[in-house]
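job 3f2a | input accepted
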Amino acid sequence: MTNHRIQAHFQESAELKIKSAALLAHPIEQAVELMFTALSNGNKILACGNGGSAADCQHFAAELVGRFERERLPLPALALTTDTSILTAVGNDYSFQDVFAKQVQAFGQAGDILLALSTSGNSSNVLAAVEAALERDMRVVALTGKGGGTIGKRLTDADVHICVPHDRTARIQEVHLLTIHCLCDGIDVALFGEEAE
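job 3f2a | predicted structure (197 res):
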């Protein structure tokens, strides 16, 4: 790998983040409000995604259950990507498409939030989880890219769609991670106010 190629990665990532800031600030703000309201009412956030998006789900849940940047009580968030017995049992006995939807049906309640990550917006198992969440009167915050795909089309006006304006998976995932940090910070600020500089 050449020095030029490495710098091109940084440049493309930085340019996309600047572009995304203007486009995504409002839906991220809406997502924070939705999540804060749910948490304030004693509800929880479930998160699902595949591959790198699965790792992002676990990162998000860890920040809420542990902490982001300041000390606070743990907040209820659960990554649906971590229980290998559930994932393999459902994948084997039903289908891989059901691995998240079954967990949403088991753990999700009205007023909860589903954080659904899919860089393409077309992951069938994430879409099935979205369908299950909507059937349970949960709200959905979807992080997508590439135009939002099928998931973007399925969301209701009560849900929030954060769609990264790019087609390259790596760049979309980089903005998803920044978005997750914005969500965590926004929840902390909503709970405790701005920190003194």
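job 3f2a | Residues 3-192 form a domain with the Rossmann fold fold (CATH 3.40.50.10490).
job 3f2a | closed
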